[in-house]
Amino acid sequence: MEKLEKLYEGKAKQLYATDDPEVLWVEYKNSATAGDGEKKEDFAGKGRLNNLITTLIFDLLKKRGIDSHLVARVGETSQLVKKATMFPLEIVLRNTAAGHFCSRLGVEEGIELKEPVLEYFLKNDDLHDPFVNDDDLVALGVCTREDLAEIAPLARRINEALIEIFAKIGIKLVDFKIEMGRTSDGTLLLADEITPDSCRLWDQRDGSGKVEHLDKDLFRRDLGDIIPAYEEVESRLAELAKSEGIEVAE
User: Fold this and answer.
1) pTM score > 0.90 for this model?
2) What are phi and psi of 144, to 5 degrees?
3) Residue 231 burial (CB < 10 Å; 0-12/13-18/19+)?
4) pLDDT confidence tier of residue 37, bands split at 50, 70 and 90
5) What is the pLDDT averaged over residues 72-92?
6) Pure H helices in the chain
7) What would the pLDDT profile of 52-64 be if each residue is shown by its tens digit?
8) How far apart, in whole angstroms, are the C-alpha atoms of residue 234 and residue 229?
9) What's the pLDDT tens digit per position in 191-244?
10) Residue 38's pLDDT band (boundaries 50, 70, 90)?
11) 28 close to 77: Cβ distance less than 8 angstroms
12) Which residue, 90, 88, 111, is CA-closest to 101?
C-alpha cells in the first residue's frame, strides 16, 4: 500500500493518507513530551518500540474479543489503520491512585481504588485537556448519550483485559488513556495507541512492593532513561503473544 500526503502531525505520531480511502498510514516518532509539550526530548528507538508495543497489545486484545483500528504493522515505525472519525476525547481508566488524580483530589499515590474510575478529558491543548463529565460532552455536542452508552462499557472491557494481560507479565496497570472513533459504517473502535507513553505501568516481578516505573513517568519525573523500560515492556508482551499463538516480529 502506498503512503501519500501527510494529513496530521501530533506529539508522538504522523498520519498519512494511502491509496485506500478507508486506510491510513501511521508513523511513530522518537519524541517524548510532558507538561502539554513544554518538556520535549527525542529518544532513539522510541518510535519503533511504541509501534511494536501497540501492535502487540492490539493483537492481544483482539484475542480477547476487543477489536481496534489496527490493520497491520508494515515497518519498524509504521502501521496501517482503519480510518475513523475520532471523538476528541482522552478516555482515562484508573485502577490505582497516581498522577493528576492524586494532585486533584489530595490522594496519596499508590492507594488502590475500591473500583476502577472512568474519566473523560477534552482534547484541547489550549485548555490543557480539561476534565469533563457526561453532561458536558452531550451539551457541547462532542458525543451523544448513545455514544457514551457504547464508549463507557467498551472502555471498562479494555481495562479488564489489559489488567489481565499485564498481570501475566508481572506488571501492574495503574492507569491508562485511550481514544476511540467510528469507522465509515458506524462501528466504534479502540484507536490511536496503547504504549508506556499512555499507561502507568509498575513492575511487580521482584515482589518488593517498591514502585519501579516502566512508563513515561521516567521522563516526566526525571527518574531515568525510558528506552530500557520500554524495551522490557515490549519483550514481555512479545513472549506472552508468542505463548498465545500470535505472530511476533523479530
Assistant:
1) yes
2) -105, 170
3) middle
4) low
5) 97
6) 46-63, 100-105, 134-139, 145-168, 217-220, 226-243
7) 999 999 999 999 9
8) 9
9) 999 999 999 999 998 877 778 999 999 999 999 999 999 999 999 999 999 999
10) confident
11) yes
12) 111
SS3 at position 101: helix
Choose the weakest-confidence range: 35-39, 152-156, 158-162. 35-39
What average pLDDT does the segment 174-193 reach? 97
Torsion of CA 166, 170, 173, 177, to 10 degrees: -50
- Judged against a pLDDT cut of 90, whether residue 88 lies above it is answered with yes
CA 246/CA 24 separation, integer angstroms? 23
Q: Which three cell numbers stand for residue 93?
A: 481508566
C-alpha cell at 243: 505463548
Compute CA distances 124 → 33, 110, 127, 220, 243, whole Å: 16, 28, 5, 20, 40
Helix (H) or strand (E) holding 118: strand 112-122
Rg (CA), the chain: 18
Q: Is 126 helix (H, G, I), strand (E, B) or coil?
A: helix
CA 69, CA 73: separation in Å to the nearest integer? 12
CA distances from 170 to 83, 111, 163, 232, 234 (A): 34, 19, 10, 11, 13
With beta carbons less than 8 A apart as the criterion, state whether 46 and 32 touch.
Answer: yes
Q: Round to whole Å and give the CA distance between 230 and 46.
A: 8
Q: Bridge-partner residues for 96, per DSSP? A: 112
Phi, psi angle pair for 163, to nearest 5° = -55, -45
